[in-house]
Amino acid sequence: MAGAPRPPHSGPLALLHTSPAHVPVFDALRDEDRPGLELRHSVDEELLARARRDGPEAVADEVRALLTRAVADGARAVLCTCSTIGDIAERTDAGVPVLRVDRPMAAAAVAAGPRVVVLATVASTLRPTVALVEEEARRAGRPVDVRTALVEGAWALFEAGDTDGCARAVAAAADEVTDADAIVLAQASMAPAQRLTTTSVRVLSSPRPGLAAAADAIRATHAGP
């Protein structure tokens, strides 16, 4: 794509995942949108399993330890790609910017209009995503009415390695939504469904805007005041 060259990045971005499936997704986005940005991936599937079972606060110590380690290893910012534990990560004072991947998506949903539908494949993601959308609405001074829907069976397909089947199930659920201004795909793993939907409602996913925000945070930190 033509245009002015982006400023050089200055240091690696650490990504905290709860599924190894996210690693190639973010590598591909980096290659497309942010060439030259060094990504360092950390995957801990047990974090999501425990957060689903016991609540996100149950893994707060582990999340803090992972963030501390990433910074000690040289990360200039950290991006948490798991929506269930994103709030825990974001509230951690790690000495560098810590971002949750879904915040830019939530802001875009609020900007699209007051009627927002949150789709998720894991029930534990619904509450933190709704809270995030409502927080972004307060920040923007906009009204919002958030509804939720769980795409039954989609997560089992994802866990079984049938990512295409999961994407089709999510897309089908999105296409059933008509009375909304925006549909939020609450988990990064749901992003492939975005290109399969046929609904006229705007469908939003988190990986691309989340990675862009993290890359911008690194550049801003490097630039200084």
Layout: helices, strands, pairs:
Elements: E1 13-17, H1 22-33, E2 39-43, H2 45-54, H3 60-72, E3 77-80, H4 86-90, E4 98-100, H5 103-112, E5 115-120, H6 126-140, E6 145-150, H7 154-159, H8 163-175, E7 182-185, E8 202-204, H9 207-223
Parallel strand pairs: 1-2, 1-3, 3-4, 5-6, 5-7, 7-8
Helix pairs in contact: 1-9, 5-6
Structure description:
This protein is an alpha/beta fold and 225 residues long. It contains 9 helices and 8 strands. The chain has helices at 22-33, 45-54, 60-72, 86-90, 103-112, 126-140, 154-159, 163-175, 207-223; strands at 13-17, 39-43, 77-80, 98-100, 115-120, 145-150, 182-185, 202-204. A 4-stranded parallel sheet has the order 2-1-3-4, sandwiched between helices. A 4-stranded parallel sheet has the order 6-5-7-8, sandwiched between helices. Helix 6 links the parallel strand 5 and strand 6. Helix 1 (22-33) packs across helix 9 (207-223) and helix 5 (103-112) crosses helix 6. The two termini are 30 Å apart. The relative contact order is 0.17. The model is unreliable at 1-7 (pLDDT under 50).
